């Protein structure tokens, strides 16, 4: 199979570097406007005659360097509830597709455990925690329906599940993953066409609703399975539909 080429650019050993530098130059000179119709993954693939994984890797590097800013990411960590200030762990910055894959694997382990605890001990937890989780779910729905950036609201919903588990360690780890979660959520949204974003929002809402229902039903196994599927789907939305396999 012939190697990918980029007309008008001098060949270098690393194609991702070439695409990275070309996008950066186009953004800085105003040729490309982040969020514009020419800035979707598909448009960039056509522009540079390369594959989606190549474009995606270059975009991740640009986001990590700050060349492409998150929109409404709100990366400052919220204070832990009283009695749960046990320290927020620090994790290295996501700078590649491989890093994001590791992040999703880790998140899957943590959140499946947290949601299982919520469902298992539902009748023994303070109702305040479950009420806050339901409130976060409805606030996320409202933000999505208004068409606004909902990454922060999405993260607050997942953080509310960690808090409703009653385990301060889950809360601490989720707080430590805040910037990573917002990075991945924004990445999956920013480079999609409007109709793709609308479909993804509908899918995410359904997944979240199923998680809430399983928790409120006290279905530990179902809650874990729905969270497992949700995070797997979140990874697929970042990596692209063709990457699900």
From TrEMBL:
<dbReference type="InterPro" id="IPR011711">
    <property type="entry name" value="GntR_C"/>
</dbReference>
<dbReference type="InterPro" id="IPR036390">
    <property type="entry name" value="WH_DNA-bd_sf"/>
</dbReference>
<feature type="domain" description="HTH gntR-type">
    <location>
        <begin position="13"/>
        <end position="80"/>
    </location>
</feature>
<dbReference type="InterPro" id="IPR008920">
    <property type="entry name" value="TF_FadR/GntR_C"/>
</dbReference>
<keyword id="KW-0805">Transcription regulation</keyword>
<keyword id="KW-0804">Transcription</keyword>
<dbReference type="InterPro" id="IPR036388">
    <property type="entry name" value="WH-like_DNA-bd_sf"/>
</dbReference>
<dbReference type="InterPro" id="IPR000524">
    <property type="entry name" value="Tscrpt_reg_HTH_GntR"/>
</dbReference>
<dbReference type="Pfam" id="PF07729">
    <property type="entry name" value="FCD"/>
</dbReference>
<protein>
    <submittedName>
        <fullName>FCD domain-containing protein</fullName>
    </submittedName>
</protein>
<keyword id="KW-0238">DNA-binding</keyword>
<dbReference type="Pfam" id="PF00392">
    <property type="entry name" value="GntR"/>
</dbReference>
């Amino acid at each position: 199979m012939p190697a990918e080429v980029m007309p008008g650019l001098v060949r270098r050993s690393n194609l991702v570097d070439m695409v990275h530098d070309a996008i950066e130059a186009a953004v800085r000179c105003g040729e490309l406007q982040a969020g514009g119709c020419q800035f979707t993954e598909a448009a960039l693939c056509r522009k540079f005659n390369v594959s989606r994984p190549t474009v995606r890797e270059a975009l991740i590097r640009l986001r990590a360097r700050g060349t492409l800013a998150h929109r409404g990411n709100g990366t400052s960590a919220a204070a832990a509830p009283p009695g749960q200030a046990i320290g927020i762990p620090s994790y290295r910055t996501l700078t590649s597709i491989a890093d994001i894959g590791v992040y999703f694997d880790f998140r899957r382990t943590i959140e499946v455990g947290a949601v299982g605890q919520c469902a298992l001990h539902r009748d023994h937890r303070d109702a305040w925690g479950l009420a806050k989780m339901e409130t976060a779910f409805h606030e996320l729905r409202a933000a999505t329906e208004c068409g606004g950036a909902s990454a922060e609201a999405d993260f607050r919903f997942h953080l509310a599940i960690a808090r409703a588990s009653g385990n301060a360690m889950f809360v601490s780890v989720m707080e430590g993953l805040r910037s990573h979660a917002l990075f991945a959520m924004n990445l999956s949204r920013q480079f999609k066409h409007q109709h793709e974003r609308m479909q993804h929002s509908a899918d995410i809402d359904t997944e979240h609703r199923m998680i809430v229902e399983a928790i409120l039903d006290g279905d530990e196994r179902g809650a874990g399975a729905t969270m497992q599927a949700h995070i797997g789907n979140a990874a697929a939305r970042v990596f692209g539909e063709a990457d699900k396999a």
